[in-house]
Amino acid sequence: MISKDMTIEEILSLFPQKSQKLAHEITKAGLHCIGCGAATWETLESGMLSHGMDLSAVFNLVEKLNVLLKEESNPTTITLTPRAAEKLREFSEDEGKSGWGLRFGEQAAGCSGMEYTLDFSEKGSDEDVVYISQGMEIHVKKTMSSRLVGSEIDYIDGLNNSGFKISNPHVKSSCGCGSSYNY
Q1: Three-state SS for 171?
Q2: The whole model's pTM is what?
Q3: Which of 37, 73, 80, 145 has the most CB atoms lying inside 10 A of its own CB?
Q4: Higher-scoring residue by pLDDT: 49, 12
């Protein structure tokens, strides 16, 4: 269980398989600016209070983080959230690719080494592992599958940031901008 007295660093290191989702929720709560009072060595409570939030916001964040910890994940597949599947279907219709699958991969890029790639894929090939989630095929090159299996692909729609968000339990670090990662 996560408490208000835990440091951000402690939370992320105690739950590495959920660290990306937890970090996203912490960022959504307002602990994301660079060069200000929030730091990974601060407790959730002190970080949020120093950002002008009250105790009810602290307790709300702690509750959300503990709900995330209880979410079950399947380490043997790649999962689309219902929201991500809905957006993918919408985008595929807009592009005249209804019924196509998702090509999920990664490439060398960014300051941390790797970044995810998403594209439409008409069908899988002999070089792919095909996963199925929310009634959609997800095509992944066999050479990448061991690093991407267990990932969850979600779609976030917010004022400051909209797009697909990927939580991968194999990732060990990511850059401050959140677009690249490393194992």
Answers
A1: coil
A2: 0.71
A3: 80
A4: 49
